[in-house]
Amino acid sequence: MVRAVTTPPDRRELLVEEGLRLVAEGGLQAVTHRSVERAAGVPHGSVTYYFDSREGLVEAMVERLVERCRAEVSEIAHRLAVAMAPRDAQLDVEPFVDALLAWMDDNREMHLARMEFELAAVRDPRLRERMSGAAAIFWRLCVPLVLAAGSTEPERDGRAMASMVDGLLLDHLAHEPERRDVIAVSIRQMLRSWAPD
């Protein structure tokens, strides 16, 4: 009889994932060496061993968050670009709205952690630099969308679109979940604002 060999999760990765979960649950103040080690079920000293400091762990968490968000935002941006391809007057944003709502609901923990990092970046210059770099990635992902919608200033308008989605996301997280029709109207109106006259 052959036994399946299971590989234990990489301890460094486990610390990053548990750190992100703690940020989502209790904010950055919930992330200490001990709290992350306890949540990960690893020996005391593991955070220092893998990251040297809490700041190193935070940087690794931000990197992971950016990787995850980039992959998911790329897929949603692609869906909208496909929906916009016909360029008719009755733009069908429904598939995009479905994808956006699923992204908001299915990744709540990731979004809460990102919003925590965004707010912390207001007071931490090093974190601000990293989060601004991450935000620029998402702004650039929106550039093809706003170009397809008719934007004549795609860099500016890509940032505007990303900011609008972030506002809808924050409202969705902090209050009653955003109604589908509100999101659809918001997206449709923004895209129409760039349509050629």
TrEMBL record:
InterPro entries associated with the record: Homeodomain-like_sf, HTH-type_TetR-like_transc_reg, HTH_TetR, Tet_transcr_reg_TetR-rel_C_sf, TetR_C_31
UniProt keyword annotations, A-Z: DNA-binding, Transcription, Transcription regulation
Segment forming the signal sequence: none
One Pfam family, short name: TetR_N
Regions recorded as binding DNA: 32-51
Protein name per Swiss-Prot or TrEMBL: Transcriptional regulator TetR family
Every HTH tetR-type domain range: 9-69
One MF term in the entry's GO annotations: DNA-binding transcription factor activity
SUPFAM superfamilies per the UniProt record, alphabetical: Homeodomain-like, Tetracyclin repressor-like, C-terminal domain
Database matches in Gene3D superfamilies: Tetracycline Repressor, domain 2 (1.10.357.10)
